[in-house]
Structure formats: C-alpha cells, structure tokens
Amino acid sequence: MAEIIIKAGKERSLMRRHPWIFAGSVERVAGRTKPGDTVDVINPRGELIGRAAFSPASQIRARMWTFDTEQSIDHAFFKRKAAESVARRARHPALSAQDGVRLIHGESDGLPGVIADRYGKVVVLQLTSAGAEKWRDAIVAGLVQATGCDAVYERSDSDVRGREGLEPRVGVLHGELPADLSIDENGIRMLVDVVGGHKTGFYLDQRDNRLLTRQLASARSVLNCFCYTGGFSLQALAGGATSVLSIDSSAPALTTAQRNVELNPQLDATRAQWWEADVFEALRTLRTEGRKFDLIVLDPPKFAPSASHADRAARAYKDINLHGFRLLNPGGILMTYSCSGGIGQELFQSIVAGAAVDAGVDARIIHRLAAAPDHPIGLAVPEGEYLKGLACQVG
Ligand code: SAH
C-alpha cells in the first residue's frame, strides 16, 4: 500500500483525531496512488497511525478512514460504518420515529465526504470526496441492508466536488423512485423533491427548530423569511399562528410550499400568505408599509461558505437581523440562523447583538439553537458545527 508521510511538527491535529491531512502537512507520498486510494499514514517518526483516502486534487490531501492501525479498509468496513451510523439514529428517541432523518453526517460519523438522508423509503446519497467516491457501491450496499429502503438516489451535485476534481453525478443507484415523495415531520406532511430540490431535497437540520417555532407561534402573527417549501410556516400554522407571511425568491419552492398546505387539510390555509421576493428588499417594503409581527424567522442560505467570505456575510446577516428586529411588536421573538461554516457562534451572536443596538431594541436570548441530533458534531471536528441560531425576545 502507498504511504503518506507527515511532516515533522505537522501531526498535532492527527494526534487529536482530526481526520484531515492538508497538502502542507505532507512530507511525501511513497508508492503509486490514484484518487480515492487508501494510503497508510505514517507519522514523522516513521510509525503507522492509521489509514486515509488520498485526494491528489484537493488541498485536503487525505482524509482519515481510521486511526486503528489493525483496521483494513474494504467493502466490509463501509458496510459496517453505514450500519453503525443508521443504528445510532435508531436508538435516539427523538429520531427513531422520524420519517426524514440524516443517516450519515460525514466526518462526524467517521465517513468523511459521505452524506446520506432518508426520506421514508428513499435514501439520498451525496458523495463529496475522492475516497467516498471510490467506495460508493459498498456504502450503498450498507445503507440498503441497514434501512431496508426501496430506493437510493445519488445527489452528488454539490459545488465542493469540484475541489476534489470530481464531476457532478446524479441518478438512481438502487430500486426506483416513487412519483411523489413526502415525509411526515412531527405531524405535518412535507413534499421532498430529491431530484430537483435543494441539498438532498429538504433541510432536515432545522427539524427541532421548526418544532420550537410551532410551540412559540400560538396566537402570534408570523413572518417566515427564506421559507423554501414552508417548513417553518406550516409548523407555525399548526401551532396556532394568527397569520403567516412567508417569503422566498424561488418560485418552485413557493409552489411546493402551497402544495404542502393542501396536503395538510387540518391547517387553516386562509392564514397563510406566500410572497415571491428578495428578502433584503421585502423587509424594507414591510417597514415602509408599517407592518409588524410577533414572531420572525430568518433562515437564510449560506452567506459565508468559508472564513474568507466572513466580512461580506457579516454585513448581510447584520442587515436582515436589523430589519427583522425593527419589524417586531413589543414582546416579539426573532428566530435567527446562520448555516455558514465561516461564521462561528460567537461572531454570529455579536452580529445579532449589533443589529439589536442599531434597531434600538433591548433583546434577550431565550433559546440557543443548533442542528438536530442526526447532524452530530464530532468533538475532534469542530468545523462540523455549521448551523447556529438564536431566539431573541424584545422587551
Ligand atoms: N427555512 C427553510 C430552508 C431555507 S433555505 C426550511 O426550513 O426548509 C434558504 C432559502 O432561501 C432557499 O429556499 C432560497 O431559495 C432562499 N433565498 C436565497 N436567497 C434569497 C433572497 N435573497 N431572498 C429570498 N429568498 C432567498
């Protein structure tokens, strides 16, 4: 087997079980390797410390599969890892009964570059590293066996594949997709477009936060910004919101959102309004019109994919949060999120604090919010923490 030898002084993060080996940490590669091949990882003292997947095109030159030097990386390894990941969700009381669950969350489940989401009887797989790409068949076999699913669909069309030198790849890998796929999320039926929707079709990470919105929405007027297919909006309606105005710039997402309302006849559709608009402009229009709300959700797309975008992203977060605070009635609640890896929890809180000051409101944090437990954060991989949120109540 080929070897990657780590430069002197560069093995510290590996000692802490961080799975990434950056190009600058590699002393040399010994032996012939193709993208995705498994390599032995050798520390600067010449000792074997584990096995990794080689990614010659990427700045992350290798990703650890294991720190167990006895472990061989083969078909059985991936089948077992997939099964263990599925079993962990099955044992969690908040996840075991869910229709829509993230089954594999990349590095945090010990499978760098592998995302798998289950929507009912369909599993959607996204592979984003050369190593994951190589073991596609084994991962699919493991998922099929562990879940008994009817179909596996591949959505490997994320931008990050380009950095690994991988082409986009989508299509059915196992079984057949049903014509209309929907899930039950805490009593609300939601359509999931695994072929054309965002990510793998749905934002599973916000499940628990949508449920909190439902609890807080009773007898409140709600504004849901960046609503996508209406996840927060429908939960707010279910929670007894007096009105829900939802904004998104995507017409197809809004069409699906309205179909979702029809799928849930227990909800009062007359309380829901859908507005196709740019949120940055819409918030200003609402202010000009003198509109106010009791609960506002801001769940924007990733403004800062990495730390290098943090400055511009910070201005965008500041803008929407400032305008959000201004549109709140006294006692109102702002539920505000950032899913940018490049904006940490502390920075996000300081941006929101600055927005409150500029809006001239006193606000307090009543909930700190994060992704649901099927999106765990490996303690060794803190950069896995991407989604953070605050529920802030104004005086
Ligand atoms: N809250 C949603 C997920 C939001 S994803 C849920 O729980 O499912 C972010 C959404 O923001 C996407 O639907 C995208 O279409 C929308 N979007 C991106 N930029 C926008 C903008 N400037 N104005 C309005 N919507 C925007």
Tell me what you see in this structure:
This protein has 395 residues and is an alpha/beta fold. It folds into three domains: 3-66, Archaeosine Trna-guanine Transglycosylase, Chain: A, domain 4, CATH 2.30.130; 75-182, Transcription Regulator spoIIAA; 203-394, Vaccinia Virus protein VP39 (Rossmann fold, 3-Layer(aba) Sandwich). It contains eleven helices and 20 strands. The strands form four sheets. Strands 16-15-14-17-18-20-19 form a seven-stranded mixed beta sheet, with helices on both faces. Helix 10 (310-326) links the parallel strand 17 (293-298) and strand 18 (328-338). Helix 2 runs parallel beside helix 4, helix 6 (207-216) packs parallel to helix 7 (231-238) and helix 9 (279-288) runs parallel beside helix 10 (310-326). It is globular, with a radius of gyration of 22 Å. The model has no long low-confidence stretch (mean pLDDT 97). The structure holds S-adenosyl-L-homocysteine.
